[in-house]
Amino acid sequence: MVENDRWGTLFAHIILILGVAVVVFPVYVALVASTHEGGTFLRGVMPLLPGSHGWENYSTVIIEGRSNAGAPPIGGMLWNSFVMAMAIAIGKIAISLLSAFAIVYFRFPFRIFFFWVIFVTLMLPVEVRIVPTFEVVAQLNMLNTYAGLSIPLIASATATFLFRQFFMTVPEEMLEAARVDGAGPMKFFKDILMPLSITNIAAMFVIMFIYGWNQYLWPLLITTDDSYYTIVMGIQRMVTGGDSEPLWHLVMATVVLAALPPILVILFMQRLFVKGLTETEK
Amino acid sequence: MQTKRMTFNSRWLPYALLAPQVIITLVFFVWPASQALWQSMLRQDPFGLRTTFVWFQNFERLFEDSHYLASMKTTLIFSVSTTLLSMSVALLFAVMVNRMIRSQNAYSTFLVWPYAVAPAIAGVLWWFIFNPSVGILPYILEGFGYDWNHRLDAGDAMILVVVAAAWKQISYNFLFFLAGLHSIPQSLVEAAAIDGASRTKRFWTIIFPLLSPTTFFLMVVNVVYAMFDTFGVIHATTEGGPAQATNILVYKVYRDGFVGNNLGSSAAQSVILMVIVIALTVVQFRWIERRVNY
């Protein structure tokens, strides 16, 4: 600190506490709403203190669902989201590691060309090319499958760049030593490169898990069978699926369950998360 | 582009290693994109029986279509407001947190987690808070004599989606601003303080200019986010309404393609969006090259 400025610091604390309150407020409201019974919301504005029906509401959404509005129990949806997020995170990391390894440790014709093919994916978000991508997936018979949910989202230029960047910083001597000892390329990759990249892999995993879990438009398009719904898109069905006002207490219980896993991932792996976020953007 | 000085020799192995990624990219990225290009020059009759090649007519029609132009304007307002709101709030938080010594990590933890909330969920949360019958904010606003209704009022609906989209993005901007602030040499700030510059003056003449690379980078990222990743916010809440007031370009592509079944026009819109993304990516990468010696 340059100067001692007590009032300034106090002022900063006040701003930050208000800021944290604003940032936390929507989730607090959701938590509170998910512990009241349905009737509360018919009587006017929602209360700001927790009610006593939390257990009931959560068990309703997880096990029974809302059969009258066509929303299945969300236990299954949570599982689908988990499978999709894991498949996307692991898939992205696996193919990016392999291709970064090829680009850094081999010289071969068309290397630059392949690099550009991978780079293109950066420029084409799913949202931009949904109709033709949907058609491709439909032709491959991948609608309503886990493969259809995850594979089209697996290619990732950012992960490839991150690993390329990291491999470039690995000392040349590692490779020389490995070759003197007679290690082939895959042995070098498995026994030397992988252990060295483990923090980068973990950081990438955190970011990609969140990315996969939060996918919305893609599962919305390619799942028509409700046993493949993911939770983030399932909420939309709950909100607009009914004929009158949504059943707020159940919707909010679902919202909390949908937001919780990625939030926990961030809170428990904050350091890895920050590393992953700031390094992929370089 | 570099490799290592010493490399492995193999005729087939590098291709095998690249194959999974390249195949997925070709099948799910390059092929659909070229399909979009091709379809953008076709027109189907309403029954889908006949398709004719019409060159650039779909594009010409789009630029004469008042709905499309209105959607462009909506997108512009939406992305500029979202970017400004989330970046200025994040910068304020980052500057304040940067003053703290012991409490820095605690505050950061509280400000960082909304990154994990999906845009669609952020939309539903704020939609609930702003709900005219049960929401808490309309109740407070009513006390001030303002009748909030985002189902009827275009301005209210726009505020709703901007707040939801910006809220989720604050944590991302906050982290990058904080990292930017940490990298500013403390000696410069101290020198200015010795010369008698006030805190405000130091911020605007030293800290803010030195943050400009971060600010510029975040501007590009936020515009991309607001234009493309906010589909969920719109779809889960206003669905483009009332009366097209929040119908941003990405949402319109989806609506015209899947609901309206107007494939030629939707493909043409996709192509325009791709051009925008490519332009933004190029801007972003040129900036990265310059940043090395700023």
What features would you describe in this structure?
Chain A: The complex is composed of two ATP-binding proteins (UgpC), two transmembrane proteins (UgpA and UgpE) and a solute-binding protein (UgpB). The complex is a heterodimer of chains A (282) and B (294). Chain A is 70% helix and 0% strand. By secondary structure, chain A is an all-alpha fold. Chain B has 294 residues and is mainly alpha-helical. Chain B has a two-stranded antiparallel sheet with strand order 1-2. In chain B, α3 crosses α9 (199-229) and α5 (119-129) packs across α7. Chain B starts with 12 loop residues before the first helix and ends with a helix.
Q: Describe the biggest sheet of chain B?
A: 2 strands, antiparallel
Strand order of the largest sheet of chain B: 1-2
Summarize the amount of helix of chain A as a percent range.
Answer: over 70%
Number of helices of chain B: 12
Q: Any idea what the CATH architecture of the domain at 74-235 and 261-280 in chain A is? A: Orthogonal Bundle
The average pLDDT score of chain A comes to 81
Q: What's the helical proportion of residues of chain B?
A: over 70%
Please tell me the CATH architecture of chain B by its name: Orthogonal Bundle
Shape annotation of chain A: globular
Query: Rg of chain A to the nearest angstrom?
Result: 24 Å
The CATH superfamily of chain B is known as: MetI-like
**In whole angstroms, how far apart are the ends of chain B?**
23 Å
Order of helices and strands of chain A: HHHHHHHHHHHHHH
Question: Would you give the CATH topology of chain B?
Answer: MetI-like fold
GO cellular component, one term (chain B): plasma membrane
Membrane topology (chain B): Multi-pass membrane protein
GO biological process, one term (chain B): transmembrane transport
Family (chain B): Belongs to the binding-protein-dependent transport system permease family.
